[in-house]
């Protein structure tokens, strides 16, 4: 039988398939941006011919991870807010973001996208800020898949004028971003609506965002139940808790990504599950200041859950670390008191970082698992290092010991964007240099 052409063939690799099934000695054939076939390497090597071949010996093929909540512009804030007392958002983030110019956001976005690729992240959702077209431009150029939103705020006295919208301007600006970027880069770029948080949103803005997101058949990215002040604000002003208030205005639904979700009541958890809204936990940023999310309850009720880095202002973008933090936190808070060692099993932790994130982005039919017909968004890990081998269970070890430096190759939409730990589409030295220049300029403008 004559061999079939494909654009990329990865051979002699271990593949982690759906259901956490590990298949050593496999091959992955990729064509036109999608996975064509996964099977024994001995069979696929003769069935396909290609001009681009990657030998996967000593490597593990995984679906790319999904950073389901990040702030690309905060790459230029790294190292500044550690050990600072509250309120960080008012004291640092607001003056910082209000001082950003378009080129600042672009180079911050380039630095953020570069770090994500090195960390094995192939898709991300940015909750927004100013000049979000520049983040979309960075994602387009680096090769990442992205859901980009423009954060909107029309209330609160601490929001500076250049960051505050009217309802009309909030909708108009997002519609303009949608026209410019939605569907660009072979569909890799999507544009969503966004609300910053309940304390900075009027009922009129919430209703408008909910309505227009449905009209455009796109998503809504919100910060929800991150801290107790949100609860106090909603209870005092509306006699409802935050999730209940948003639902009363018609917002909650399966197109809504709710970042953080730490201080939810049990009733609110049930409400999110009923509406199909996907919570996204950010354990690195939440555990030290906001508390423990109700992850086991959400999972028990059948909710998808995503994982987010919450940006790089205080640490690395590293979802391997995020999985472990979430697993350990759930074990300490929920498992120890009842002597249950599996309140967040390995398979669920990995699903949260991949398929759960894909569901949060509305892309579960295209990414999140390695299967024929899905988008070719995958990563290769070197599993020959001393922290991997020997091991009784490679998958358990991958989740509990894996790290960004183990990622050697990244393929997104069928295109190799990193080969042997080197990005193929951009100059990383230039990105670091330009991002450093803009970081210093923004810090001076914002008096940081």
What would you say this structure looks like, in words?
- This protein has 448 residues and is an alpha/beta fold.
- It has helices at residues 41-47, 88-98, 102-118, 132-142, 167-181, 203-215, 228-238, 242-248, 266-275, 283-286, 295-300, 319-335, 346-353, 355-360, 394-401, 428-445, and strands spanning 4-5, 8-17, 21-31, 34-40, 48-49, 53-55, 59-63, 65-70, 121-126, 145-149, 189-195, 220-224, 256-260, 278-281, 306-307, 378-382, 407-412, 415-419, 422-423.
- The protein has 2 domains: 4-63 and 370-423, Urease, subunit C, domain 1; 65-360, Metal-dependent hydrolases (TIM Barrel, Alpha-Beta Barrel), CATH 3.20.20.140.
- The protein contains 16 helices and 19 strands.
- The strands form 3 sheets. Strands 2, 3, 4, 6, 7, 16, 17, 18 and 19 form a 9-stranded mixed sheet that branches. An 8-stranded parallel sheet has the order 8-9-10-11-12-13-14-15. A two-stranded parallel sheet has the order 1-5.
- It is globular, with a radius of gyration of 21 Å.
- It starts with a strand and ends with a helix.
- The relative contact order is 0.16.
- The model has no long low-confidence stretch (mean pLDDT 95).
Short description:
The protein is α/β, with parallel strands linked by helices. It folds into 2 domains: 114 residues, Urease, subunit C, domain 1, CATH 2.30.40.10; 296 residues, Metal-dependent hydrolases (TIM Barrel), CATH 3.20.20.140.
């Amino acid at each position: 039988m004559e061999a079939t052409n494909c654009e990329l063939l990865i051979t002699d690799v271990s593949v982690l398939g759906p259901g956490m099934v590990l298949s050593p000695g496999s091959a992955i054939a990729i064509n036109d941006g999608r996975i064509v076939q996964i099977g024994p390497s001995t069979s696929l090597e003769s069935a396909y011919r290609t001009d681009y071949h990657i030998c996967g010996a000593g490597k593990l093929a995984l679906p790319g991870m999904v950073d389901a909540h990040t702030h690309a512009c905060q790459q230029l804030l790294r190292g500044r807010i550690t050990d600072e007392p509250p309120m960080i958002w008012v004291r640092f983030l607001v003056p910082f973001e209000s001082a950003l110019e378009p080129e600042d956001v672009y180079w911050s976005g380039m630095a953020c996208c570069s770090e994500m690729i090195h960390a094995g992240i192939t898709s991300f959702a940015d909750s927004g800020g100013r000049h979000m077209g520049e983040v979309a431009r960075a994602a387009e150029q680096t090769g990442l898949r992205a859901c980009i939103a423009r954060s909107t705020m029309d209330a609160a006295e601490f929001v500076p004028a250049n960051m505050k919208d009217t309802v009309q301007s909030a909708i108009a600006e997002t519609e303009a971003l949608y026209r410019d970027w939605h569907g660009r880069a072979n569909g890799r770029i999507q544009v969503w609506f966004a609300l910053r948080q309940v304390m900075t949103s009027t009922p009129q803005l919430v209703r408008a965002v909910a309505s227009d997101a449905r009209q455009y058949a796109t998503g809504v990215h919100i910060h929800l139940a991150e801290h107790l002040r949100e609860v106090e604000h909603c209870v005092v002003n509306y006699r409802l808790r935050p999730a209940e208030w948003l639902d009363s205005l018609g917002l909650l639904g399966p197109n809504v990504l709710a970042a953080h979700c730490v201080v939810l009541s049990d009733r609110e958890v049930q409400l999110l599950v009923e509406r199909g809204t996907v919570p996204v936990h950010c354990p690195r940023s939440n555990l030290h200041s906001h508390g423990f999310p109700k992850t086991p309850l959400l999972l028990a009720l059948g909710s998808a859950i995503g994982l987010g880095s919450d940006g790089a202002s205080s640490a690395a973008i590293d979802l391997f670390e995020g999985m472990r933090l979430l697993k350990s936190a759930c074990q300490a808070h929920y498992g120890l008191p009842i002597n249950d060692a599996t309140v967040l099993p390995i398979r669920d932790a990995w699903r949260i970082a991949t398929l759960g994130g894909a569901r949060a982005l509305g892309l579960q039919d295209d990414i999140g698992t390695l299967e024929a017909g899905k988008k070719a968004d995958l990563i290769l890990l070197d599993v020959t290092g001393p922290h991997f081998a020997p091991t009784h269970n490679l998958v358990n070890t991958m989740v509990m010991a894996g790290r960004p430096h183990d990622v050697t190759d990244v393929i997104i939409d069928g295109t190799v964007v990193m080969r042997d730990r080197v990005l193929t589409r951009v100059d990383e030295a230039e990105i670091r240099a330009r991002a450093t220049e803009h970081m210093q300029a923004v810090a001076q403008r914002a008096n940081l």
